[in-house]
Amino acid sequence: MASREPNCLFCKIVAGEVPAEIVREGERTIAFRDINPQAPTHVLIVPREHVATAAEAAHADVGLLDEIAREAEEVAKVDGVAETGYRLIFNTGTGAGQTVFHVHGHVLGGRGLEWPPG
C-alpha cells in the first residue's frame, strides 16, 4: 500500500491486520460490511491508500471517488439492492459524523431510506 497511517482502523483492515467481512476487492478499493449496520445492506468502501476525507480525495486523486461510486453499484448488485435502490454516503468531518478519518463511502439499502436523513 502506497500510503498508510499506522493507527488508522481502515488501513489495518486493508492490510489484513484487523478482520472484516470482505464483500469485494478491487485494485484500488476494498469493500466490507459495517460492524454496526444501519440497514440490511451496509457496506463500507475504502481506498487502499490512506486519504482522510472525501474532500481530500477529490483534490488528491483524480478518479478515486468515481471508483468508489462504481464499486458501490457492484456492491448493490451483489446484495440485490441495485434495482430497488441504495444510498451512497460520504460523511466528511466530525460535524457530519465522520469517526474514522480514512475516506469511505457507506452503501445502504434493503429498507426504506427516509429523506431527509438524520
UniProtKB/TrEMBL annotation:
- What PROSITE patterns does the annotation carry? HIT_2
Q: Which InterPro entries match?
A: Histidine_triad_HIT, HIT-like, HIT-like_sf
Motif mapping: Histidine triad motif: 102-106
Give start and end of each HIT domain.
9-118
Taxonomically, the superkingdom here is: Bacteria
Question: Pfam families attached here?
Answer: HIT (PF01230)
SUPFAM superfamilies, per database record:
HIT-like
Q: What is the protein named?
A: Histidine triad nucleotide-binding protein
Q: Which organism is it from?
A: Salinactinospora qingdaonensis
